[in-house]
UniProtKB/TrEMBL annotation, chain A:
Lineage: Bacteria, Pseudomonadati, Pseudomonadota, Alphaproteobacteria, Hyphomicrobiales
Matching InterPro entries: AAA+_ATPase, ABC_Ni/Peptide_Import, ABC_transporter-like_ATP-bd, ABC_transporter-like_CS, Oligopep_ABC_C, P-loop_NTPase
Pfam families listed in its UniProt record: ABC_tran (PF00005), oligo_HPY (PF08352)
Annotated ranges, domain ABC transporter: 7-258
Protein name (record): ABC transporter ATP-binding protein
Subcellular location(s) of the protein: Cell inner membrane
Automatic annotation (TrEMBL), chain B:
Residue intervals of the ABC transmembrane type-1 domain: 95-304
The name this protein goes by in its record: ABC transporter permease
Keywords: Cell membrane, Membrane, Transmembrane, Transmembrane helix, Transport
Gene3D superfamilies reported in the protein's UniProt record: MetI-like
PROSITE patterns cross-referenced by the UniProt entry: ABC_TM1
Length: 329, 314
């Protein structure tokens, strides 16, 4: 944990209860989020991005998940082991979340005002009248037109993009130090996506908060993040500054992701797809979990699971052949 | 809101019409000649003919129906044959008993049923859930008349805590009224508590798995606020639907319970009326029950608009 880091995740390993016992969803996830940083987490569905995010605030369904190892350090505390009461004070005040589906993430029977002011009343102890005033200001801040009228409406009266703005307004209400946005634009139209990303970017600059953006869309990540964490099958496979990652990816999986992005130029060629599919969490695979899909697989890959190795001050890769010669990169 | 109320009222009109026609048909559907029954065993044919004319039974069918509706519109339900009073006054006399019973039973049912169902949903698949659902299953399965009789034996005969039968009007002392009503009301609510708990549990289970519950937790809200406010406000929509059924079963169940506890309510009145072939009385009670069910469903429809903002503008 470096001095400037806000949240420090160490060896986070989360398991879920299934019919066949405990299944490991993510294993050995370690990374720091610095104050004011902008981290992108990318990976296919099922790669463990959301599990990682939800673990940071312990928001998984109760009784069906457990933290086998690891820690999430924030402000000198381990959030995985902190008492529920402490965690509740951090949720929404210091670390806030925006979820994927704005249609189902807002409570349909409570007004927007109610849902925004709830956090303010809880964490800042302001009066209901003051909270209402703050709610209108927040709606203005997330660029919802006619905020003073909209504030008394119910979510079903708003479009998807507007609802996601309301979700963001709720999340930033108490000026959190870290905003976790879990696929915030996935359920939205492309034009709305761009607006929401721009809004997040502006808010980050304005409020000076760190943002952790989770997406399966490399384009979104490229536009938004300063640093990118690539996840595959519950593990971090590459972690690098955004320009380094896009210019010189080191992990074959990251290369595959880059290759499967549609290019603006280059015509109507067939889009590249990584062969195979992401393995189930409890599928037995010897060595590297990307091995069966990797074009560059070697005997050494199946011999032992690769470690996440630092190949520079800010670059980490989990690939035995590629890190073996890291000295020459 | 006013438009919706008017619309729902309008929709209730045909239902009430059908109920009225069915009540009218009771006269002609039942075996035997009502005029013979009413005139009695010893009547001469002339006397029977006289009764028939008095009742208007000698007129064409449609004319009879018209007269029936005309009387209903004038609030005339006719006179009871076994009691020396009009049907309307006989029912008015007994209505407070049935309303007390049904009201008290609903008042017991709602908090217990909702709380039990919510707790079971929150602790799903734990021993708490199994316990609550087991008891709820007992509640809906045990026949009301059996447990009612058993409760009289235990609480009135053996323990002597409560009177075994009879009704004390509330203006003769609230405590005495409560003592006379509490056991019948609890017996009436056993089925309903079980039913409501099961419905609440499934509604809550559905709501608790929704995304907005995770949102509520991510805001730092306590479990109490998350479940009691965010989840419950949504589950309430289904609970309100259930309430329509609950009030209906309370009215239906009151017939049996009033019989067991010898409470002079509408339910006991109609049983006596049926046994005595008191047609006007049975018709009158049928109509009142019909109106009551229509009114309950109307109330449920209107309550929806309060509980769920999404139906408010439809």
């Amino acid at each position: 944990m470096t001095a400037s880091s806000l949240v420090s995740i160490e060896d986070l390993t989360v398991q879920f209860r299934t019919d066949r016992g405990w299944t490991t969803a993510i294993e050995g996830v370690s990374f720091d989020v610095a104050e004011g940083d902008c981290v992108g987490v990318v990976g296919e569905s099922g790669s463990g991005k959301s599990v990682t995010a939800l673990s940071m605030l312990r928001l998984h369904a109760r009784g069906t998940s457990r933290f086998a190892r690891g820690s999430v350090r924030y402000g000198g505390q381990d959030l995985l082991r902190a008492p529920e009461r402490t965690l509740r004070q951090i949720r929404g005040r210091d670390i806030a979340m925006v979820f994927q589906d704005p249609m189902s993430s807002l409570n349909p029977v409570l007004t927007i005002c109610d849902q925004i002011s709830e956090t303010l009343c809880l964490h800042q102890g302001v009066s209901r009248a003051a909270a209402r005033q703050r709610a209108i200001e927040l709606l203005d801040l997330v660029r919802i037109p006619d905020a003073s009228r909209r504030v008394d409406e119910y979510p079903h009266r708003l479009s998807g993009g507007m609802r996601q703005r309301v979700m963001i307004a709720i999340a930033i209400a108490c000026r959190p130090r870290l905003l976790i946005a879990d696929e915030p634009t996935t359920a939205l139209d492309v034009t709305i996506q761009a607006q929401i990303l721009e809004l997040l970017r502006d808010l980050r600059a304005e409020l000076g908060m760190a943002v952790m953006l989770i997406s399966h869309d490399l384009g979104v990540i490229a536009e938004f993040a300063r640093r990118v964490i690539v996840m595959y099958a519950g593990r971090i496979v590459e972690d690098a500054p955004v320009d380094v990652l896009f210019r010189a990816p080191r992990h074959p999986y990251t290369e595959g992701l880059m290759a499967s992005m549609p290019a603006l130029e280059g015509g109507a060629g067939r889009l590249y797809a990584i062969p195979g599919r992401i393995p189930d969490a409890d599928e037995p695979i010897a060595g590297c979990r990307f091995g069966p899909r990797c074009a560059h697989v070697e005997a050494i890959c199946q011999a032992a699971a690769p470690e996440l190795v630092a190949i520079g001050a800010t670059h980490r890769v989990r690939c035995t052949p590629r890190t073996r010669t890291s000295g020459t990169s | 809101m006013i438009r919706l109320t008017l619309l729902k009222l309008l929709q209730a009109v045909p239902v009430i019409l059908i109920v009225s026609v069915l009540a009218f048909l009771l006269m002609s559907l039942l075996p035997g000649d009502p005029a013979v029954l009413i005139a009695g065993d010893q009547a001469t044919p002339e006397a029977i003919e006289q009764v028939r004319r008095n009742l208007g039974l000698d007129r064409p069918f449609l004319e009879q129906l018209g007269i029936w509706f005309l009387h209903l519109l004038q609030g005339q339900f006719g006179s009871s044959l076994m009691l020396n009073q009009t049907v309307l006054s006989a029912m008015a006399e007994r209505l407070p008993v049935t309303l007390s019973l049904a009201g008290l039973s609903i008042a017991i049912t709602l908090p217990i049923g909702i709380f039990a169902g919510s707790v079971a949903a929150y602790y799903r698949q734990s021993w708490v859930d199994s316990l609550v659902m087991g008891v709820a299953l007992l509640g809906v399965s045990i026949p009301g008349f059996w447990i009612a009789i058993l409760s009289v034996i235990v609480f009135s005969v053996i323990l002597g805590w409560l009177p075994s039968s009879g009704y004390v009007p509330i203006d003769q002392g609230a405590i005495e009224w409560l003592r006379s009503m509490i056991l019948p009301a609890i017996m009436l609510s056993l089925f309903q508590i079980g039913f409501l708990a099961r419905m609440t549990r499934s509604a809550m289970l559905d709501v608790l798995s929704q995304d907005f519950i995770r949102t509520a937790r991510s805001k730092g809200l306590s479990e109490w606020v998350t479940v009691g406010k965010h989840a419950f406000r949504n589950a309430l929509i289904l609970v309100i639907t259930t309430m329509g059924i609950l009030v209906s079963t309370a009215i239906g169940g009151s017939v049996v319970i009033e019989q067991v506890f010898a409470l002079p309510g509408i339910g006991r009145l109609v049983v006596q009326g049926i046994l005595a072939r008191d047609y006007p009385l049975v018709q009158g009670v049928m109509l009142i029950y019909g109106f009551a069910f229509v009114a309950i469903n109307l109330a449920v429809d209107l309550l929806y608009t309060v509980a769920d903002p999404r139906v408010r503008y439809d």
